[in-house]
Design goal:
174 residues; single chain; 34% strand; 9 strands; three-stranded antiparallel β-sheet; 6 helices
Length: 174
């Protein structure tokens, strides 16, 4: 049964679009507004009601929710220099831990990535997730997740979502 869930999860990943609908937009806001020199905060995201409904439909009710979290630790000057000077933000490798809620037992996966974000005059001009490793899944499925996660299609979706996030007027310090 677990292998079937992995197969359905992989199929869902390969046919879905990225979304940050359920991202906790206030998680790092205090850190950005503080005088600290480092953005150091826990960031979590989850599927919203519409995405949960689509997940259940696309996986025949097997996958019900996905919740992920990561710890961001970025020098603040790197972020602001990129945002205000059309530069590049390069993150050191870190892990995103996700819990997949199923109609049976939940399971956890982890993804190690070292993303970069290129900021241009019009916002994010390029993004690379650079997924390097996936744990909690059989290797052949993990490799499919890496391939999909580093695909141009997903990079475009991530770029679009990040530009929408940055367009939020409450994001930037006042």
């Amino acid at each position: 049964m677990r292998l079937f869930i992995f197969a359905v999860f992989t199929a869902m990943l390969l046919t879905s679009k990225a979304s940050l609908a359920g991202i906790d937009k206030e998680a790092c806001e205090k850190v950005f507004r503080s005088t600290a020199n480092v953005v150091d905060c826990q960031l979590s995201f989850s599927t919203d009601a519409r995405e949960r409904e689509a997940l259940m439909k696309n996986t025949y009710g097997i996958i019900r929710n996905i919740t992920c979290g990561t710890h961001l630790n970025i020098p603040k000057n790197q972020v602001f220099n990129a945002l205000f000077g059309a530069g590049k933000i390069i993150l050191s490798p870190h892990t995103i831990d996700c819990e997949i809620q199923t109609n049976g037992d939940p399971f956890k996966i982890g993804m190690t990535l070292a993303p970069f974000i290129q900021i241009g005059d019009e916002g994010v001009s390029e993004i690379g997730l650079n997924i390097q490793k996936v744990t909690g899944l059989p290797a052949f499925i993990g490799n499919l997740v890496i391939k999909y996660g580093n695909s141009p299609e997903l990079q475009q979706e991530a770029k679009k979502a990040l530009n929408q996030f940055l367009a939020n007027p409450g994001f930037m310090p006042q």
